[in-house]
Amino acid sequence: MHIEPIRIQGVNKVFKTSGSDVVALKDINLEIPQGQFVCLLGPSGCGKSTLLNAAAGFALPSSGSITAGGKLVTGPGPDRGMVFQEYALFPWMTVEQNIKFGLDIKGTGAAEAESIVSALLQKLGLTEFRARFPKDLSGGMRQRVAIARVLALDSPILLMDEPFGALDALTRRNLQDELLRIWAELGKTVMFVTHSIEEAIYLADRIIVMTYRPGTVKRDVLVNLPRLRDPASADFNTLKRELGQLVMEEQQRHHNSEILAAAVD
Amino acid sequence: MSQFKWRDVATGLIVPVALVVLWQSAAALGWVNAHVLPSPVAVVQRWVAYLLPQVPFDPAAGSWLAWAVSGELIVDSLGSMWRVVSGFAIGAGLALPLGLMMGASPKVYALLNPLTQVLRPIPPIAYIPLAILWFGLGNPPAVFLIAIGAFFPVLINTIAGVRHVDGIYIRAARNLGASQGTLFLRVMLPAAVPHILSGVRIGIGTAFIVVIVSEMIAVNNGLGFRILEAREYFWSDKIIAGMISIGLLGLAIDLGVTKLNNHLLRWHRGLEH
Q1: Angstroms from B190 CA to nearest CA on chain A
Q2: Which domains does chain A have, with CATH numbers?
Q3: In the predicted model, what is the mean pLDDT of residues B239-248?
Q4: Complex confidence, ipTM
Q5: Residues 190-249, chain B, touching A (beta carbon < 8 A)
Q6: What dihedral angle (degrees, nearest 10) is formed by the CA atoms of A134, A139, A142, A143?
Q7: In principle, which of A95, A134, B5, B198 could form an S-S bond with A89, CB 3.0–4.6 Å?
Q8: How does pLDDT run across A135-193, given as a tens digit for each residue?
Q9: Does A81 touch chain B (CB under 8 A)?
Q10: Distance (Å, rounded) from C-alpha A167 to C-alpha A138?
């Protein structure tokens, strides 16, 4: 039987708070095939990060199941490399030590680890920075290191939580292109969280638009535009308008519920 | 390190030089009794005498080096330093593993924190009677008091350091497959180092205060003993010479700790170089 890299079945996630329970995810069902680049799109509070964290194993679903490579997700693991918006590099380690950290844990031999690290430094244009500490790098460079760190373990699945959200527009485009190049070369399955419609269209094979509380799948869109995509093209903008409408409906619900919450207080 | 600026040095010297000139004039003009406040020249003379060996060099008695460091000041300074270093090593050496355990394990923390909070406010000086009762006179009570002085700052800061490790590092490490052991040794411990080092800095400062006090009470040498002894003979110039020595030694310790700090935290953002 063919096993999809990521299978999300009947996933619910409820956060218990002192007042009332918040249903963050409700009955999510997704099958993500090998090598697909999927963007989870929606306003804040739509549960896209919650779903990603569930797949990463940091916060398991309240009910339902997630399998990765056929195995039930019960906790975090190096088969699902995670890239965080805050980079999460270890500041006390140099660029090289950060990238090598996962290999040390895995027990990769020194010579092999060295060649993997050198190749990744090369691939991401970090060779000159290998002995630097993260504090001496720009945001874009830090995120390159974070990507290299998960690539070092050669995990089949990449989970990315708004990885370029804190970067300026030019650096962001630069890293998006880099990511697409790496993804095309290595054939990873990617789950990428963003609230930028343009970023989702630029990157994804498939965009999952999510609803605001409870988080459900509002629309599952396949993007059939050839890469590299031109954000100024007519097709790109037709899709952007369509998705923009969907996302703004949810953003409006988010806004209304905030006003309601403030009125109750 | 920024460039050495002669202008800054000159600016920094204005007030001290003016004070010394005023002090010297006050002494020379007889405004104050020399027993109460000796002249700076007398203090410097006394300091040099305190520094130099008391007997002329005699090749038959031993090596030149041994003679050169046989001055009372050097013997006292080494004595005080030795007590600070050994007391600090014991205090911090016990506090560090205990703090790591209390920081990492809520169970250990719940077990030991109440006692820690009760003992912590007791100033190390308050342990003097007990220290003498338990250890008699000499080095042991002094080292005990210094260890107490160093123990709590290192303990409290180590606990805080481990408990305040940013959760994102732990998530990143677990995502990369780190076991509990790796997580502790390679993530939580280094992440806690800035806190631990500020505890070390406070601990060394406390140890240095306690060494002077304990030498005044329980030991027959060292800088603290020497200035109290000088008072009994009304050697006010030697009291001040001793105080200046204590200040210089304290400054040297602080510079050493700062240097260690800067090296260990060279990765840390917002570090002054």
Answers
A1: 7
A2: 1-79+157-167+188-265 (3.40.50.300)
A3: 95
A4: 0.92
A5: 190-191, 193
A6: 160
A7: A134
A8: 999 999 999 999 999 999 999 999 999 999 999 999 999 999 999 999 999 999 999 99
A9: yes
A10: 9
